[in-house]
Amino acid sequence: MTTAHPDVPAVAVDAPVLEVRDVHVNFAGRQGLIASIMGKTAPSARAVDGVDFSLAKGEIVALAGESGCGKTTLARAIMGIIKPEKGDVLHEGTSIRTGNIRDYRRRVQMVFQDPTAALNPRKTVYELVAEGLRVHKVPGNEEEQVASSLSRAGLRPPERFYLQYPHELSGGQRQRVVIAGALALDPEVIVADEPVSSLDASVRGEILKLLMDLRADLQISILVITHDLGLAWTIADRVVVMYLGRVVESGPTEDVLLRPMHPYTKALLDVVPEAGGTDRPILQGEPPDPTRIPDGCRFHLRCPVVASGRAAELGIEDRCRGEDLALRELGEGHLAACYEADLQYPQS
User: Fold this and answer.
1) Mean pLDDT of 218-240
2) What is the pLDDT of residues 47-66, one digit of tens each?
3) Residue 43's pLDDT band (boundaries 50, 70, 90)?
4) I want to staple 58 with a disulfide (CB 3.0 to 4.6 A). Which of 2, 81, 219, 251 is the partner?
5) Of all helices (H) and strands (E), which one includes residue 335?
6) Which spans in 269-347 are helix H?
7) What are phi and psi of 261, to 5 degrees?
């Protein structure tokens, strides 16, 4: 495994603890709701459109892309909150459709984007962290488990926080309480949805270091949902880039961020100084309506390679506009779905 940053400790990677296989999630959308009221049919919005990736034990994977690309919807499908129309999510080789969903939700915990919204304002910190222990009827000394979880999350001494309410805490402390609530159940996997986007810049590094320490100390696997490839550079072993419901590039973090193959990834990296590189195109426009996904490469309407005329020069413009393509391995563990990349990095 290639680590993303010299400060990230190398961790042995075993068989996948979590697998996403060809997951599809569709929504009716506004036009679909209007049509259903009128007794008509309308195309559904393909929020997640055939996504595959895996997460190994002790690995941190960043799932990256713009807002609306399907990241959070996919996270909810992974948690079993949304049922996919097609495809499956497997935990240690067992489908969550057929496995014990209660046990699964104990072993795979989610940390939400907004800690203020995630915490019940009427409950104390002790009650918030102990809630999962009580719901799942975890045996053992409850107070010791709560104290240990708060300490692991960086809230020390834990007793000082027991009787405090969320409004009495800082944003970083509230996020640590959310993480402590997840740690109380000894999870194997944490799904963190934009875990630092609502925090001050001075606190973000502390929370990211906490996540890396949890991986190093407890061998917890972490899926980080983010729009910020700079965060991926800091924390992740692998990066999975989504656009309009589909993965367009994935691979080891250093490969994807230093040698991006897909124009969408290159455009996202334009604002990431850690990844280096200059003269990258600035991403223009908005993603298409997910109920009207274009033919061919779904990025071609915004693609600088097409817009600049380079695709026509290379003889691939018609394919970009009319032929859909799947991910292809163009480097060791580095996959991309791009006709230009196919020419630059031919498969062996």
Assistant:
1) 95
2) 999 999 999 999 999 999 99
3) confident
4) 219
5) strand 334-336
6) 304-307, 310-314, 317-322, 339-344
7) -105, -25
> Is residue 12 one of the residues assigned to a domain?
no
Cβ atoms 153, 180 nearer than 8 A: yes
Residue 46 to residue 194: CA distance in whole angstroms: 22
pLDDT for 317: 97
pTM: 0.90
> C-alpha distances in angstroms, 116 versus 21, 172, 238, 246?
33, 10, 29, 30
Convert the pLDDT of each residue in 105-119 to its tens digit.
999 999 988 899 999
In order of 109, 195, 198, 228, 277, the CA distances from 174 in angstroms are 17, 11, 11, 22, 37
The Cα 342–Cα 345 span in angstroms is 5
Least confident segment among 2-6, 96-100, 145-149, 320-324: 2-6
Cα–Cα dist 186/180, whole Å: 10
Q: What sections of 252-316 are H helices per DSSP?
A: 253-258, 263-268, 304-307, 310-314
Q: pLDDT averaged over the chain? A: 90
Q: Is residue 274 part of a domain?
A: yes
The number of distinct structural domains making up the chain is 1
* Pair of tokens at residue 162: 């027991």
Closest by CA to 75, choosing from 242, 266, 291, 219, is 242
Alpha helices in the chain (DSSP H): 29-37, 71-78, 101-107, 115-118, 125-135, 142-152, 171-183, 201-218, 229-235, 253-258, 263-268, 304-307, 310-314, 317-322, 339-344
Domain hosting 320: range is 254-344
φ, ψ of residue 62 in degrees (nearest 5): -100, 125
Using the Cα atoms of residue 283, residue 286, residue 289 and residue 294 in order, give the sign of their dihedral: negative
Distance CA 221, CA 207 (A): 16
On whether the CB atoms of residues 91 and 18 are closer than 8 A, the answer is yes
Whether 44 is covered by a domain: the verdict is: no
Q: What one-letter code names the amino acid at 100? A: N
* 287 domain residue, yes or no: yes
Q: Give 188's DSSP letter.
A: S
Query: For the stretch 110-125, what's the b/e string if a residue is b when 16 or more beta carbons lie within 10 angstroms of its beta carbon?
Result: bbbbebeebbeeeebb
